[in-house]
Amino acid sequence: MLMKMSSLFVRTLREDPADAEVASHKLLVRAGYIRRAAPGIYTWLPLGLKVLAKVEQIVREEMDAIGAQEVHFPALLPKEPYEATGRWVEYGPNIFRLQDRKGADYLLAPTHEELFTLLVKDLYSSYKDLPLALYQIQTKYRDEARPRAGLIRGREFIMKDAYSFDVDDEGLERSYELQRQAYQRIFDRLGLEYVIVKAMSGAMGGSRSEEFLHPTAIGEDTFVRSPGGYAANVEAVTTPNPEPIPFDGLPPAEVLDTPDSPTIDTLVDAANRLHPRPDRPWTAADTLKNVVLALTHPDGRREVIAVGLPGDREVDLKRLQAALEPAEVEPATDDDLKGRPELVKGYIGPGVLGPNGAPRGDDGESPDGAMRYLLDPRVSPGTAWITGADLDGKHVFGLVAGRDFTADGTIEAAEVREGDPAPDGSGPLELARGIEIGHIFALGRKYAAALDLKVLDANGKAVTVTMGSYGIGITRALAALAEANADDKGLVWPMQVAPAHVHVLATGKDQAVFDTAARLAADLEAAGLEVLYDDRPKVSAGVKFADAELLGVPLSVVVGRGLADGVVEVRRRASGEREEIAPDAAVARVCELVDQALAG
Amino acid sequence: MLMKMSSLFVRTLREDPADAEVASHKLLVRAGYIRRAAPGIYTWLPLGLKVLAKVEQIVREEMDAIGAQEVHFPALLPKEPYEATGRWVEYGPNIFRLQDRKGADYLLAPTHEELFTLLVKDLYSSYKDLPLALYQIQTKYRDEARPRAGLIRGREFIMKDAYSFDVDDEGLERSYELQRQAYQRIFDRLGLEYVIVKAMSGAMGGSRSEEFLHPTAIGEDTFVRSPGGYAANVEAVTTPNPEPIPFDGLPPAEVLDTPDSPTIDTLVDAANRLHPRPDRPWTAADTLKNVVLALTHPDGRREVIAVGLPGDREVDLKRLQAALEPAEVEPATDDDLKGRPELVKGYIGPGVLGPNGAPRGDDGESPDGAMRYLLDPRVSPGTAWITGADLDGKHVFGLVAGRDFTADGTIEAAEVREGDPAPDGSGPLELARGIEIGHIFALGRKYAAALDLKVLDANGKAVTVTMGSYGIGITRALAALAEANADDKGLVWPMQVAPAHVHVLATGKDQAVFDTAARLAADLEAAGLEVLYDDRPKVSAGVKFADAELLGVPLSVVVGRGLADGVVEVRRRASGEREEIAPDAAVARVCELVDQALAG
């Protein structure tokens, strides 16, 4: 159906919307692809809906190609399945909850593991029914604390979510690999650059997980990569475990005066001033700082813990959060510290923390008051530290981990820095930012076990099914595409997802121009192309050009002044290339360029 | 993509689901098209999704053909626009409401008049931009008190909703007519019988409204039609106004003893026994009964009113409800009647009701205690009645409407009966039942005025836009199709919406059968058809036939015993016709039958 600018429901805007920070958000609104309906909630206008349909279709084709079958679940779901897996509680304020007229609890689903699990349980019962892969392209909801960047972090958005069901681990591995390859084909076809990074499974559970990140400076996810090919999001980066150092010959620890040294900077200064060591000065890396944090568990319980890490590293709350999920973590407040006089602010040491702190009961359980103590992996057995002596103005020097103190475990709490070694030995890490456009999880048996999805195996024995979960943020991928394909004049769609293949512009007032343009538009459509025709009679050529550049259709045919000399102009939006051509040759030339782009 | 029964995500059931009452619900579940996720909320399985996509596509094509442009609104919406039009309150418990993490009120939209109005206001400003028609195919929500009949009355469902915008009434009339014709083409293409009936505008507001009803005994809407072509849903039927009768010569009213006659039956009996009239006996039609009802207004206010109607007619609460919207109506309770000693149960008459009751103030306003009194149109000026005398055991005879008592207005409160005259004089009414599959409204300026949607007219004057709203229940239409196209063996899809064109069955154990069937399935697909292939190796022919009949694909090709004699069988699901044909001729024959069906 030929789209005419005179009647198309679109109004381009010259000004950026006030609430827009990133290019995709600004341009999609200015070009009339989307409109904001509420924070993080958008309406799709005709041109936007056409791009969306093309993105969905590419995803659908690649899902179908690996034998995944399309279904469609409701968005409005009862709480019970999510209660069975614990996610009703774990999601906390991040999901929309409501009650129906009878007072029954419902949610707007943020993802559908539970429902797919129950559906398969409902229909299937034998190993012969597996493997199975199902998917849907469906509207999802998350009550984001800070919706931002237009479609990039919305509260109502479209996802493709797929789920695989296998009888054993090898099957899951194959299913995971099939989806991973399909994702690569999808993003390749979309022309969307991506990096596959190791990720945490987080609230999803499961054994293995990778993210597809689109690298961009406006991305809200930080990831790392090494020259040797290691890639992970920053939450998933692990710190290589140093070799343990033998205790033999390490001098004993001693408590020394370090007056007025409650911070790492003042401590290093005091140590070098009052207790210099002969070979080299003390640095922040020689100090062990202990940070007190408060966790809120899904059941509402609040727990105060301490984390010890080298003094030259900051705590990375996102990494810490990922390590402690589903609990929510924040710095401890004065309230949390009330009734703990052993914590001397600025001088806290392992002596009062974890197993070193208040004595534990016979059963090894921590009694009230002995807080959990977790250490950065760098604080490994045999390493010696300057750290708080739990007395005002005093630190202990040469305190050796594993000899003089222990902890309740290790934790990845420290920031990752450019140049840190990759955990697999593949070289120094580089830091970059990206948008998460896909995420695949080898879930394993978490959901199947919680919801009792079993099948009979070849021996007639009931075995719990193992699952994978695979998501693509369709609306977010579209935003990433807009972000990656834009310049200062507007959008520059790749042919594969453009709302039209070609934009015909009639410029000037000459009737012959409009007649020729109308004929060309009709002929291009008859040749099987999707055509946008700017037929507006009283709009200047300048406005039409500006609109065409803002809308970002890959090819334009400009019919104007040149027509008197027997030529029209074919323009390419991306490169700016222009060529003059006889009107009669224009259709064949445009078809050729479209075919090249689609093949490309 | 060839669908193989061995891997298709479907399990047919031999038993009807326990909660299913109607054929479409039973069969869509048994055949594995849908599954219940919660009351009135369904999941679409692969075959169901294919039918749904075809229904949507037909609707989309006909909308596009009349120049309507597709957009897509969120389902989750802030309350403010709905508050501006009053519907946030009017919808009462019939919508799902929720709050986000900041405590802001949201709803799951049941329809989108407000949002479309605001979007057009946002983008357009001149009469030159109009007419405009927009539509979406989108998931909607209503918190039905009694979800029932599977997809027919659901709580999450898919609608096509369209909206027209015009500068004047003639424009609205044209837009309404375009949609009306598109609806006729849609239902014709779907092969879905329909009747267009006059309807009430109800909570939608507006001047004119028609429903598209699919006639079926399981429909929950009652409608009427006359031999002369009048059709209306029962709420919209109006009672012809009788000619006024002159008061001259009518005898005066007199109060007579009618002991123990609190019901119409006992009253008619007492009247004939104690006060017979010479020419003919009294009947219920000579009595005027006054029914006390309680209204709950959207603002929560409760109002007690009385309705007077001939004693031989029952009150139809649905008609009354439609007449009194948005208030909710129910019979008055004892609590409502407290403090009203003038109401003598069983003997209530006009003497204590409305303008005849407690005296009113100078301003004509009813003081507290004088309840509104509304009359059936049959109780017209000059008609004489036996009715309550407001004294125990006494009725008044010959009380003349307009002479001896008046009311606050008329109301359509009485049941419609088979044989009642059509209001347009086109003959006696016949009653029938149907499913509402479409509803079109000439809304007029209600929404545009409430939300201040104006455009400049040709004279530069701001004028309020006039709108129409046009809905098709996509999932309900699919259910109606299933309901209309089924037999005792299962579904019988029309070719236009079938999940596949042809179902190939390999029966028996012979490898040659499976080889031929696989080749035929591939050839049929290569010929452009959608093919379902029952390739299950260890399933009996009987089960395969039963499944094929349940699934309802219009054509089958059975490859089995006949293959040894060089034939396969082509079966038509609807008629049961069978023909034997050489395998090599089967593809051409099936293509011919598919083309015939799609053309037909």
UniProtKB/TrEMBL annotation, chains A, B:
Q: Where is the Aminoacyl-transfer RNA synthetases class-II family profile domain?
A: 35-494
Q: Which chain positions lie within coiled-coil regions?
A: none
Q: Which reaction does it catalyse?
A: tRNA(Pro) + L-proline + ATP = L-prolyl-tRNA(Pro) + AMP + diphosphate
Where is this gene product found? Answer: Cytoplasm
Residue ranges for the region (Disordered) are 348-367
Any one Gene Ontology biological process term?
A: prolyl-tRNA aminoacylation
- DNA damage is among the record's keywords: no
Q: Which GO terms describe its cellular component?
A: cytosol
Keyword line: Aminoacyl-tRNA synthetase, ATP-binding, Cytoplasm, Ligase, Nucleotide-binding, Protein biosynthesis
A Pfam family the protein falls into: tRNA_edit
Give the first-level EC class, as a single word. Answer: ligase
So what EC number does this one have? 6.1.1.15
Domain comment from the record reads as follows: Consists of three domains: the N-terminal catalytic domain, the editing domain and the C-terminal anticodon-binding domain.
Q: What does the subunit section of this Swiss-Prot or TrEMBL entry state?
A: Homodimer.
Q: Give the function comment from the record.
A: Catalyzes the attachment of proline to tRNA(Pro) in a two-step reaction: proline is first activated by ATP to form Pro-AMP and then transferred to the acceptor end of tRNA(Pro). As ProRS can inadvertently accommodate and process non-cognate amino acids such as alanine and cysteine, to avoid such errors it has two additional distinct editing activities against alanine. One activity is designated as 'pretransfer' editing and involves the tRNA(Pro)-independent hydrolysis of activated Ala-AMP.
Q: Would you tell me the protein name for this molecule?
A: Proline--tRNA ligase
Q: What organism is this sequence from?
A: Georgenia thermotolerans
Query: What phylogenetic lineage does the species belong to?
Result: Bacteria, Bacillati, Actinomycetota, Actinomycetes, Micrococcales
Gene label: proS
